[in-house]
């Protein structure tokens, strides 16, 4: 299959986006990694949230081999993944006013914690209110979004604002509006989304920065090992016991 075949075109597009993220978001990635390292060192807890397919990148950070043990998933029933039936209900829930505040009120988030909010469009009520409400609690918010949506779409929040407007730091995934990298004359709609690939890589770059920053400060990063290597489970058991008050997915 030639490089001009759809598979090659998609991979080239994804590689191009990853290069843009590497080159254009380097300072933001460094700042986000430093913010998370500060949070860990100061006794704070780490959380990640994403709705719909944006939840995939959030879930990739939690209980992850090679990842930070302190990263917890902030789950909102009905919007994490496509397991809700019918699936379009999840999209509808993202537009419900007040849902984010209800979730935060019953969550363990508190002042001094850090929350990653992943939303490709950043236009729906849920991520906007999540960021606004979390910051009001004294939580540091890192938004991961495609900034292009703010200039090419209309906000669905009453304020007319987007996720990017309510964050301490913003990471721009560079994904084009519509999240489809390919077009063909005989295919009626654009296809081949790259947001999951790029967003996951962007976030793992932040995690790498966090781990290295902690190590540079003389703090052992609370990392997990694969349970499929010898000694992995014992290692993870020790890490989770040490940080049990900051890990919520084990209770």
UniProtKB/TrEMBL annotation:
Residue ranges constituting the SIS domain according to the UniProt record: 36-221
Lineage, highest ranks first: Bacteria, Bacillati, Actinomycetota, Actinomycetes, Kitasatosporales
The UniProt similarity line reads: Belongs to the UPF0309 family.
Q: What is this protein called?
A: UPF0309 protein GCM10010255_50040
- NCBIfam families, per database record: PRK02947.1 (NF002805)
Q: Which domain of life is it from?
A: Bacteria
- InterPro entries tied to this protein: RpiR-like_SIS, SIS_dom, SIS_dom_sf, SIS_GmhA/DiaA_subfam, UPF0309
């Amino acid at each position: 299959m030639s490089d001009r075949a759809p598979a090659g075109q998609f991979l080239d597009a994804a590689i191009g986006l990853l290069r843009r993220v590497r080159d254009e978001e380097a300072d933001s990635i460094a700042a986000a990694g430093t913010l998370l390292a500060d949070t860990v060192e100061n006794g704070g807890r780490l959380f990640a949230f994403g709705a719909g397919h944006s939840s995939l990148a959030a879930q990739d950070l939690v209980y992850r081999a090679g990842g930070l043990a302190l990263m917890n998933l902030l789950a909102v029933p009905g919007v994490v993944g496509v397991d809700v039936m019918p699936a379009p209900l999840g999209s509808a829930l993202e537009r419900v006013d007040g849902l984010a505040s209800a979730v935060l009120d019953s969550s363990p988030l508190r002042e001094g914690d850090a929350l990653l909010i992943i939303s490709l469009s950043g236009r729906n009520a849920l991520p906007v209110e999540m960021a606004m409400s979390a910051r009001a609690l004294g939580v540091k918010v890192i938004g991961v979004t495609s900034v292009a949506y703010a200039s090419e779409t209309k906000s669905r929040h009453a304020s007319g604002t987007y996720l990017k407007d309510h964050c301490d730091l913003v990471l721009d995934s560079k994904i084009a509006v519509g999240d489809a990298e390919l077009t063909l004359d005989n295919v009626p709609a654009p296809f081949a989304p790259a947001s999951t690939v790029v967003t996951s890589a962007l976030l793992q770059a932040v995690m790498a920065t966090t781990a290295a920053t902690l190590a540079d400060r003389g703090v052992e990063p609370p990392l997990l090992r694969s349970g499929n290597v010898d000694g992995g489970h014992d290692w993870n058991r020790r890490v989770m016991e040490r940080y049990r008050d900051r890990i919520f997915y084990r209770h």
